Amino acid sequence: MNVLLLVIPIALALGGLGLCAFLWALNSGQYEDIEGAEYRVLSDD
Known about the structure:
With about 45 residues, this protein is mainly alpha-helical. Helices cover about 80% and strands about 0% of the residues.
């Protein structure tokens, strides 16, 4: 039972960290041109 007192805050902290990373990626514009990335991989410059 005492383990839950340690595991639950760690899980919540990791979830919050993941949410912050997602929001950072969303605000930095990494999801703006999703279709263009697949064509840039195939093109030879």
